[in-house]
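**Fold tokens**
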Amino acid sequence: MACYRGLAGGYLQGLDTLTASEETPAVFQAFGQFWDVQCRLGRGVSASVHKVSSGVASAAVKEFESSAQGGDYGFLKEQAVLEELKGHRNIVTLYGTFTNYSGPHLSTNCLLLELLDVSVSELLLRSKSHGHSMWMIQHLARDILEALFFLHRGHYVHADIKPRNILWSADDECFKLIDFGLSFKEGNQDVKYIQTDGYRAPEAELQNSLAQVGLESDVECTSAVDLWSLGIILLEMFSGIKLKETVQSQEWKVNSSAIIDHIFASKIVVGSAIPVYHLRDLIKSMLQSHRAQRITAENALCSPFFSIPFAPHIEDLVMLPSPVLRLLNVIDERHLQTEEEYEDVVEDMKEECQKYGVVVSLLVPKENPGKGQVFVEYASAGNSKEAQKMLTGRTFDGKFVVATFYPLSAYKRGYLYKTVL
């Protein structure tokens, strides 16, 4: 098995309300291997998620409590959905299922899952109300629309798109959807209460309200509810503001379009406004109150917003891990004047960087773009994350080293972004 490392979060349905802590298992035995538990990532009503490792491989174990209400059903449902959806790069990978025996007559059903990194929920917290770059928003929008197009083509509805259920994969360099505990096939909805407050489509809001008083809704929830949730997330990513109170207000119900216009008008935009208008129009098309007027994932992917290339901000490269590290403030002109000086400094950098993992390649451009920067490709994102942690803030010739991640795909193409600071 390949090496999977990360700071995973958001694997659980219903983590907003954590229940009382119980003893975390020390080890799981699955597929002929012992998986040591590194930590518990979270606990919900019917399942807990643990970060585990076996040798150099890391993964996540989602352990369902068979004694909890709906525990077995939740396990079987999520297993079936993930097995049917297996293989799409923007959907979390299920490696397999197993039963964990913790004692006589004590057993739990478990999913062994791909371990991912930072969640969109964490990215929103880090934005400090400034919002994220167009590069980040476009990346996220395209990745999740690709996942939804695949999902909806198979007539599945995720039914709980929210920031906590979208995570970054450092090794695959993309955002992925997780947590299919509320998902269903169109026409076969088996749960009445779907989606999360702040990301719930109007038709789901109506259905939930009627279900609370024991009434049935004659409006079916379809794949359109997922587009609504994604639209809210993109608006939050752009504005840097949580919009739960806004989307639940009477003003939003009366004229959501005007509120979206106000959010975009109040944001200072650097450069051409045309891409911003494309994003605004894309979000509006996802947030149509009537589901029949809401854009589909397939049509959303054809938006002109995706035809415009963007460069990442330096903050993006700090927040999104990848196997490539970029070091600033370590090389200056005198190191590039002679071939001997250059080779010495490259050798020194390689020796230093190898302390934190296997270095696949190292590049120090002599000309712009990238002149004087150091690009280090590690064998895994786990290695580069360790190096980033250890090198950031170190001094080199009296200067503080700045270590950011760098997109592996751009590095492999030899494309060095002129990042927006």
